[in-house]
Specification:
Blueprint (H helix, E strand, L loop, with lengths): L3 E9 L4 H11 L4 E6 L2 E9 L5 H18 L5 E8 H11 L3 E3 L3 E5 L11 E5 L11 H13 L8 E5 L5 H8 L4 E6 L2 H13 L7 E5 L2 H7 L4 E7 L2 H12 L2 E13 L3 H8 L4 E9 L2 E8 L3
Parallel strand pairs: 6-7, 8-9, 8-11, 9-10, 11-12
Antiparallel strand pairs: 1-3, 1-4, 2-3, 5-6, 12-14, 13-14
Helix pairs in contact: 1-2, 4-5, 8-9
Length: about 300
């Protein structure tokens, strides 16, 4: 018998996209699909039936309305329906198409073929039940930042991907030539999706190690540190993890941090500098930003 999923649909003002996305992720949803509907935005998200009951969904709808009122926007309209796993997978196929990211990447859904004569690095993704399809600005910013960081001598670089989601950033780093990536996520569904996408892209397990957990697991695997750190989660989680992340860093280590709203950038920066990091660049897209950081040089 297939598992059932709640499909949650939110119709809202476009300016509320990042707030709705954050609220859905905090609620426990996995994967999102966004579409323009005239002057509004339709956001779909998914969560296993076993993780949410009707009172939970009603509470989510109330939170979304409260968020909008606080920000001075009209209330979003939310509704939900149950669907089996096959229908859930089909829903993804209707909303998600091939997309180019940065100068080098082509993100290709697993059920589609890249265009003929494509010269880009192809990342094939079946998101399963994990975040990370390449459509969200934070994922795009991270992939573009990886392009820059791995533009020279990538074959020597060992990378840590904290909160790997679907594994899209880890796979991107390998395709850019990184020697090895260690990917971790606390969500077993994300770990499963990353395993599947590693296989889908023909990545050697020797080059991409996947584990359930967080920074502590990485410290056990790499006590001597890493060359680069990628972390695309929420600003609050990044702030909480920074003392542990510091232990992964060598004097030459760089980092790419995203999942950060522009309004949260200063709070993240404020905790980085006292811990020996310098913000080398801040890239923005819509209401989101990505911090490129490096160890401060005395």
């Amino acid at each position: 018998m297939s598992n059932s999923w709640w499909e949650i649909t939110v119709l809202c003002e476009p300016s509320l996209e990042e707030t709705v996305f954050w609220r859905l992720e905090d609620f426990g949803c996995s994967g999102t699909a966004t579409a323009k509907k005239q002057s509004s935005l339709e956001i779909k998200a998914y969560i296993p039936e076993i993780k949410a009951q009707l009172p939970d969904l009603e509470a989510l709808s109330l939170w979304l309305k409260q968020d909008a009122l606080i920000l001075g926007f009209p209330e979003p309209v939310s509704h939900w329906q149950l669907m089996d796993e096959e229908d859930w997978a089909s829903s993804w196929k209707q909303h998600w198409q091939i997309s180019e990211i940065g100068d080098r990447f082509l993100i290709c859904p697993a059920w589609l073929n890249p265009p003929e004569n494509n010269q880009r690095l192809v990342i094939k993704i079946d998101p399963g039940s994990a975040f990370g399809t390449g459509t969200h600005p934070t994922t795009q910013l991270c992939l573009e930042s990886l392009e820059m960081r791995l533009s020279s001598h990538p074959e020597n670089k060992i990378i840590a991907d904290i909160g790997c989601g679907s594994g899209i950033l880890a796979i991107g780093a390998i395709l850019l030539g990184a020697k090895k990536v260690y990917a971790v996520d606390t969500d077993p569904l994300a770990v499963s999706a990353t395993y599947s996408n590693r296989h889908l892209n023909g990545i050697n397990p020797e080059n991409l190690a996947i584990n359930q957990g967080s920074v502590e697991e990485l410290l056990e695997l790499m006590p001597d540190g890493v060359d680069g750190i990628v972390c695309n989660i929420l600003a609050e989680t990044i702030i909480a993890l920074m003392p542990e992340i510091n232990r992964l860093a060598k004097p030459t280590t760089w980092g790419i941090l995203s999942g950060i709203l522009v309004t949260q950038a200063q709070a993240v920066t404020d905790i980085l500098e006292p811990q020996g990091w310098t913000v080398a660049a801040l890239w923005k897209r819509q209401e989101w930003c990505c911090l490129q950081i490096r160890r401060a040089v005395d």
